[in-house]
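README: folding subset

This subset contains proteins for which both the sequence and a predicted structure token string are available. Records are stored as plain text. Below is the entry for RING-type domain-containing protein (300 residues), shown exactly as it appears on disk.
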Amino acid sequence: MARHSKHNTASGHFTYAEYQMLKDRWGSRKLRLTVESMRAFYACCLCLQDAQRPVCCAQGHVFCKECILSDLVTQKTQLAEHSKRRAELAQRQSEQEAEAASRAEKRRIAAFEEASNALPHEAAKRKRDDDPADDASKHARTDATTQGAANPAFWLPNMAPEVEADALQELAKDDRPSTTLCIAGSEKPHKLTMKGLVPVHFGTRTVDTQTQHYCPSCKKELPLTAQVHVMRKCGHVLCASCTKELVHVPLARHDEGVACPECSERVRKREDVIAIVREGTGFASGGRSETEAKGITFQG
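--- output ---
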């Protein structure tokens, strides 16, 4: 048997080993995420590091104060440029419409003067079934054809006559001309302003020269993927069990004097308690424990 017959190229079909060699470049891939691959509940959603001077939005996304303020300022700058461009396009379109109306008016006046100065026998032979609207549209088509013929680069997409109209329609459809958004929830961004940020105070302590996060009510250590809640009024963070027993259950019974266990700040309604968003849990069905990348299957 020749040596080349033992190589992969000698076979008429793909083997399992060859498919394994190509699986990193072709097809869809799935990967089970572990705790080390998930963002901790006290980490910033933008820089993914431990939040410095942490704040959160109304839906529980945690940020560094510097990171979120920088992002909001950037969004405001982009929105200002967007509004300016939309105003320029609207003004340009109105000028073009006014110019077209002026040209149509001049043509109507010229046609009227020409008909008034014509000889009687010529006026008698002239047909009266011409529609001024059809004449204006005919002139508009003629002007567009002449402008297209005079344009040396008529094949470019940005030279098409409907580009500005389409761009103006797209800008008009935008329903957030002056609204900054929280982009941490990429699936469904929501409105976020600087006034809507809630300061967060995580309970920390030092154990064996390492910083440990804990619940200030029950003093238990909080794991990286713990389900925690922050009190909107004071910013203290409690674990799920303490929040349920000390806040949610008394609120459901309409008890008076429901307060934060740490500082006794009054809690009046369930909206005063914000659930911090977490990446996942230690269970396969909890959170986003699996990631998937779709690709084209190798057609070998």
